[in-house]
Amino acid sequence: MSEKDVAEFTSSEAITVAPDKERESPPDQKSRNPLRNYLDARKKKQVITEEEFQFLTVRQLMWHKFRRNRMAVFSVVVLVFLYLITIFADFVSPAYFRTADTEFAWATPQRPRFRDVETGEWSLRPFVYPIQGERNMLTFKREYTEDRSTRDYIYFFVHGDPYKLLGLFETDVHLFGTESGKLFLMGADQRGRDLFSRIIYGGRVSLTIGFLGVFISVVLGSVIGAISGYRGGTFDMVTQRVIELLRAFPTLPLWMALAAAIPVTWSPEAVYAGIVVVLAFLGWTGLAREVRGKVLSLKEQDFALYAESSGASSFRIVRRHMIPNLASHILVTATLAIPITILGESALSFLGLGVRPPMVSWGLLLSEAIKIQTISLYPWQLFPALFIWVAVMAFNFLGDGLRDMVDPFSR
Prior knowledge:
Blueprint: H1 3-16, H2 27-30, H3 34-45, H4 50-55, H5 58-68, H6 70-87, H7 89-92, E1 113-115, E2 122-128, E3 131-135, E4 142-146, E5 152-165, E6 169-178, H8 195-231, H9 233-248, H10 251-260, H11 268-298, H12 302-309, H13 314-325, H14 327-350, H15 362-366, H16 372-377, H17 383-405
Antiparallel strand pairs: 1-2, 2-5, 3-4, 5-6
């Protein structure tokens, strides 16, 4: 055997025979912790090598960048859940939001249980203890105690207050509830109305106002800003002076002044539309400024000059070339503007200048806790603030994730 053959044989043996510390562990050792193996596999899938990075499309890179932001993905799940329960609020809520019972005024929240406090027995079906209220003749406060001798079991798909599902189908089936029909998971207000049901219904107004208000702001800001940046001249000068005038006033006092101008004779639906217009009246100015600045740089690009030399009108260039190139920026700005609009509606309703009864919103529910005495005696009236906080934080995290997604080439 020649020296060359010996060298080849030695090298091949070195490849096939691995050191002891590099040998694969037996299958039984690998399967000892399946959860750890699953998490390691998930982590490896999210790592892109340089070679794979070169063959991914822009959309794949954007999706990978967004998926790596776990808070943004979790926020999407939270927002989808919030919008689903508010869309089907009639079905999800255990009672109709206007159903009142003064015998349960300021009722305390009922705690679902699986274990009986008295006997220690466990139950597979959750239950609550019925509550009974009595007036304390010393403090004149209505105090509630649990009747632990009986149980109110919580069932799915129970019959309760009649309603029209999505305004089309008449039914009285609710997602969950008790046979007695009295279930106060988050307590009751001063008229004995279930606070949890009112919060679910209130989400319809608070969450839809955020979308509608931002939609109007995005349309106005995108169109006006793009035309102002592309055309320039007198239109640009007048637009910028109007924006500076509107932004010179503090936002909340101007919102309050415009909301106070809504006539008291308007119907609740008309007041709702008026609040949407008021919130959108100032929201478009910031986006218009940003779009104008980007259009000033885009209109000097080759594609814009070629479209102009081809005889395309200014409106067509703005609609087909400018705004589509700014779509990612507009999307991120709109997502971050929705929580501001939700907070604006909540502030106006909290101060009594927003939506009016019989409509209900999170800010209007929170206005019942405007007194320190109410907060100290009935702290559960602050539950609407928790839903506002969750929605605002979810939109902010989603906006951060979209901001990273639109720049997929950054590491």
